[in-house]
Amino acid sequence: MKLTVKTLKGSHFEIRVQPSDTIMAVKKNIEDVQGKDNYPCGQQLLIHNGKVLKDETTLSDNKVSEDGFLVVMLSKGKTLGSAGISSTQFASNPPTTVSTPNSTPLVQPQSANNNASATDVTTTNVTTNTYGQAASNLVAGSNLEQTIQQLMDMGGGSWDRDTVTCALRAAYNNPERAVDYLYSGIPVAAEIAVPAASYPISQTTETGGASVGAVPGVPNSSPLNMFPQETISGAGAEIGSLDFLRNNPQFQALRSMVQSNPQILQPVLQELGKQNPSLLTLIQEHHAEFLQLINEPVEGSEGDIFDQPEQDMPHAINVTPAEQEAIGRLEAMGFDRASVIEAFLACDHDEQLAANYLLENAGDFEG
Amino acid sequence: MTLGLGGSSVVVPRNFRLLEELERGEKGIGDGTVSYGMDDGDDIYMRSWTGTIIGPHNTVHEGRIYQLKLFCDKDYPEKPPSVRFHSRVNMTCVNHETGVVEPKKFGLLANWQREYTMEDILTQLKKEMAAPHNRKLVQPPEGTYF
């Protein structure tokens, strides 16, 4: 049978299918017809009569009939699989001790009699802290070097070392998210420095408990724990409200990042689940309150293009003579021209709706 | 069918009206960014419907699919259907706990007229997503449901 497939670009095309075909088979069919670059089957979503069709069901299960139509859209997520690298490469747990490359020693421990020369190159084993155990897919040390190389190979030469390093830094050393950034662009918000946590993560060396600083030039060698466990052990958490987050500097930094790039919220929450499961549980229990908190305006924040005043974006609107008359009639009701035009456009050129709108909001328009 | 005064207006009975809407839904609406259909083809009263809205461009909703449930009771279209988001969404007119579109906060339902259709509801909700007070609101993670 013949099916019409609509795209969100406004075009449509036809495919030949059988009622017994699975949705997955239909997606492959679309991929063949339209090309793998345009409609990779892994990213397709098919919609019919208000339902998103599941891969394992058939066309007849979904009552898709002869000469019916489907809507195809592409999901945003770019899978690692399609880039020719298995995501399991990144998912394996790092060893419990992380060796740093010889060229960049983290610490040069002094021997007991203090006669070690400053030029001694020492490989230091850093014992993992609770953060390291939780964030199993974050990389550091020699793993980091290896990951940078892997990502560069994956790009086939199109990504240079700096770009990859920058993406990793923006992704807080999460390779899977870094790949996402490399494909879709590194969000500007992710490059903003986040204030240091008020509970620094101390990493103890085997030799003498010296605190390890971040290595310059290496992205997030000691990644930042945005919400350390201690921050929710206060009374606020016990009450079961999220109010204690409002004045938390890490949360404020997160809020400004999320407001300038809302897409970052989901990965941040996933990371939070690894770092601090109890806080994530609390957020899930108070979902509405969390959304309210995160949408509160940030002090001193600048608006973006959506918030710019009308005069910054001049535009002319053409109206037909009939619409001109309608605007005239609405003006005759006693409203000023600017308000009438605003209401008329807001109501999609529907005179009746615009009249209702103007009457309902009469108080707002009176100067 | 009942004729109005002087034979000028015709009040289409509920079932005929819903059959019209069903047919229109099956033919496809506009650019495909909103669509709807019956939940259960065997329900002779045609009460439960499913809708989808594809988030509008240049908003936080872009590239997301929102699934909704619409319920047309026996007094439809005199009274509006009840509308509930199945996919989690953060909008001013949607109850954060239940996903129900609150009629008082959504003009089309608040000022319902019998000529309005489920297509109008979905189209208006899509416009609402692009309204200044909704287009930038941080959204729950994709793929989560009420």
UniProtKB/TrEMBL annotation, chain A:
What UniProt keywords are attached to this protein's entry? Cytoplasm, DNA damage, DNA repair, Nucleus, Repeat
Chief place of localization: nucleus
Looking at the record, the residues that make up the Ubiquitin-like domain are 1-76
Q: Which GO terms describe its biological process?
A: nucleotide-excision repair; proteasome-mediated ubiquitin-dependent protein catabolic process
A GO molecular function assigned to this protein is:
polyubiquitin modification-dependent protein binding
Which parts of the chain are coiled coil?
Answer: none
Give the UniProt subcellular location, in the record's own words.
Answer: Nucleus; Cytoplasm
Instruction: Say which domain of life the source belongs to.
Output: Eukaryota
GO cellular component, alphabetical, reads: cytosol; nucleoplasm
Question: In which residue ranges is the amino acid composition biased (Low complexity)?
Answer: 92-117
- Tell me which residues make up the UBA domain: 142-185, 321-361
Q: Does the keyword tRNA-binding apply?
A: no
Q: Where is this region: Disordered?
A: 86-117
A Pfam family per the record = XPC-binding
Q: Which Gene3D superfamilies match?
A: DNA helicase RuvA subunit, C-terminal domain, Phosphatidylinositol 3-kinase Catalytic Subunit, Chain A, domain 1, XPC-binding domain
Q: Which family does it belong to?
A: Belongs to the RAD23 family.
Q: What is the documented function of this protein?
A: Multiubiquitin chain receptor involved in modulation of proteasomal degradation. Involved in nucleotide excision repair.
Name of protein: Ubiquitin receptor RAD23
What species does this protein belong to? Glycine max
From TrEMBL, chain B:
Single biological process term from Gene Ontology = DNA damage tolerance
Q: Which Gene3D superfamilies match?
A: Ubiquitin Conjugating Enzyme
Entry's InterPro entries? UBC, UBQ-conjugating_enzyme/RWD
Q: Give residue ranges for domain UBC core.
A: 13-146
Name the Pfam families for this protein: UQ_con
Going by the entry's taxonomy, the superkingdom of the source organism is recorded as Eukaryota
Q: Which GO terms describe its cellular component?
A: nucleus; ubiquitin conjugating enzyme complex
SUPFAM superfamilies, sorted: UBC-like
Quaternary structure per UniProt?
Answer: Heterodimer with UBC35 or UBC36.
Q: What is this protein called?
A: UBC core domain-containing protein
Q: Which organism is it from?
A: Glycine max (Soybean)
Name the gene that codes for it: LOC100805567
